[in-house]
Structures are given as structure tokens and as C-alpha cells.
Write a structure and sequence with these properties.
Order of helices and strands: HHHHEHEHEHEHEHEHE
Shape: globular
InterPro entries: SAM-dependent_MTases_sf, tRNA_(Gua-N-7)_MeTrfase_Trmb
Radius of gyration: 19 Å
Distance between the termini: 25 Å
Protein name: tRNA (guanine(46)-N(7))-methyltransferase
GO molecular function: tRNA (guanine(46)-N7)-methyltransferase activity
EC number: 2.1.1.33
Strand content: 15-25%
Number of strands: 7
Catalytic activity: guanosine(46) in tRNA + S-adenosyl-L-methionine = N(7)-methylguanosine(46) in tRNA + S-adenosyl-L-homocysteine
Length: 279
């Protein structure tokens, strides 16, 4: 059964057409995406906050996480200084990008939970943390960190339970020789699995099937510890290839909005920790 599912996935990878805006309409598609993002996050009203500083933010879209400048693990913060209650369950968004997704959750989800965003592009972290300070939120914090090398050191020090980890549309690094740059490598999978509390969940998603399938294969390898949520939560439904049909978070990421406007499919899996490795 596992072999059949894997074979089906890779057959689809071979014949999957590109789902991007054609060149003549790319500018129009980009404008529509920007409008859609602004509409989705309108209640945060973040844009004016940072532009009032008179700064134009220029961000590199891609960085090499294997660069020596990202090789040193980031020290954990003083949790009692960044969160009002550092004993609350923690959600970590790996590769949080602009941070709007996580800020929206921290402001609107209604759950008693802390939120931590890890991002490798320092200028984005500077802006997101500025937004957090301006909004006066004490349940969310952003850090400049290469999660591949820093996750264990940061999260193992958190005094509360790790209840949710999300990796949403990470940089695909398409070329085979660059796959080692992808954020989700075996040590990170092992660390996430180890540090999750019982009942804690992992959400992975991508609009690139090859990337989604690679992440899925890595977490499927921990089936003795992790179960896909459709087997423990009958309210979540999958298609016949095991991808979640709906977004379980209540808000879309910016990349998700862009991809869906371009006609792409979002491939999602969510896992729940059902036992510790020692059991």
C-alpha cells in the first residue's frame, strides 16, 4: 500500500504541468495577488505601520542556508521577556516569511497559545517584530534563525509544550544539487518529532508537488510516533492520495494566496503525535 501511494505521487510529479501565470499576464496576476493578500489581512492594517518609518524594504527572495553566515545555531531568547506567559503551548512557524500569517493567528485565533516565527532573512524579522511591538502583542515573537541548525537548541529550552509546527510553502530549491538547501532535512524532522508534546501536530504544505511529497515522505517515516490527522480527527478529510482537502488554519499564507490565484494546487498533510519514541 505504501509503495503504491509513493509510486502514484511520483507518477504525478512527472506529468504535472506548470501552474504559473503566463508572461503576458504576469504583472496583472501579481497585482491581483497583492490585492488579495491585502484583503485577506486587512484587519491587521500592517502596511502603514512600517512605511511610516520612511523605509523601503528590499528583501532577497532566496538565500543559501548552507552559507557560513547561517551555520551557527541561534541562541534561544529569554522566554519570560518575549512572552507574557512562557508556559503556554507554543506554535512554531518555520520559514515564516513576512509574518502576517502568524500575526493574524496571534491576534485572532482565540487560542491560549504562544507563537514563534523563525526566518532566515533578517530584514523580514526586523519588520515583523516592529509590527508585533506596534500592535502590543505579547504572545508572539520572531527570530532570525536558520531552523535547520537552530530548531533543537531554541525549542528544547522552551518551558511550555510544543503543540504545533508549521512548514508552509518552503523554498523549493528545484535543482537536484540544491536539494540539500531545503529547510526540511532529517535532523530537523527528528527534532520536531522529539520535541512535540503528545497530541501535538505538524502541518506541512506546498504548491510544488515534488516538495510536498519530499516533506511527506520524511514525516511518514515516523509512523510509529506520528499519525496523519484524518485517522484521529474525522472532521479533517483527504483526497484519495492522502492530501488534506481544506486549510485547517482559518487563514491562508501569502504564498498560498498567490499560488491559488495562479491556478496551482496546495498539497497539505497534518500529523499528530500519538506516542513518544521510547514507548
Amino acid at each position: 500500500m505504501a509503495w503504491t501511494a509513493t509510486a502514484t505521487l511520483w507518477c504525478r510529479l512527472i506529468r504535472l504541468p506548470s501552474a504559473r501565470c503566463p508572461s503576458p499576464s504576469r504583472a496583472r496576476c501579481s497585482a491581483q495577488s497583492t490585492d488579495a493578500v491585502d484583503k485577506e489581512y486587512a484587519d491587521l492594517n500592517l502596511r502603514p505601520l512600517y512605511t511610516n518609518r520612511g523605509q523601503h524594504l528590499r528583501i532577497r527572495q532566496h538565500v543559501n542556508p548552507l552559507s557560513s553566515s547561517f551555520s551557527e545555531p541561534t541562541e534561544p531568547p529569554e522566554w519570560k521577556e518575549v512572552f507574557e506567559d512562557p508556559l503556554l503551548p507554543l506554535m512554531v512557524d518555520i520559514g515564516c516569511g513576512s509574518g502576517r500569517f502568524l500575526i493574524w493567528l496571534a491576534k485572532n485565533s482565540g487560542q491560549r497559545r504562544n507563537y514563534l516565527g523563525l526566518e532566515i532573512r533578517g530584514k523580514l524579522v526586523e519588520r515583523t517584530q516592529f509590527w508585533v511591538n506596534e500592535l502590543g502583542l505579547r504572545n508572539i515573537h520572531f527570530m532570525f534563525a536558520n531552523a535547520t541548525v537552530s530548531f533543537e537548541q531554541i525549542i528544547s529550552s522552551y518551558p511550555g509544550p510544543l503543540s504545533l509546527v508549521s512548514i508552509l510553502c518552503p523554498d523549493p530549491h528545484f535543482k537536484k544539487r540544491h536539494h540539500k538547501r531545503r529547510v526540511l532535512q532529517s535532523p530537523l524532522v527528528d527534532s520536531i518529532t522529539k520535541n512535540l508534546c503528545l497530541g501535538g501536530r505538524v502541518l506541512i504544505q506546498s504548491d510544488v508537488l515534488e516538495v510536498a511529497a519530499d516533506m511527506r515522505e520524511r514525516f511518514d517515516g515516523h509512523s510509529d510516533i506520528l499519525a496523519h490527522v484524518d485517522s484521529v480527527d474525522k472532521g479533517l478529510h483527504c483526497d484519495n492520495e492522502g492530501w488534506l482537502l481544506d486549510n485547517p488554519m482559518g487563514i491562508r499564507t501569502e504564498r498560498e494566496i498567490h499560488a491559488e490565484l495562479e491556478g496551482a494546487t496546495i498539497y497539505r498533510r497534518m500529523y499528530q503525535k500519538i506516542r513518544d519514541a521510547s514507548h
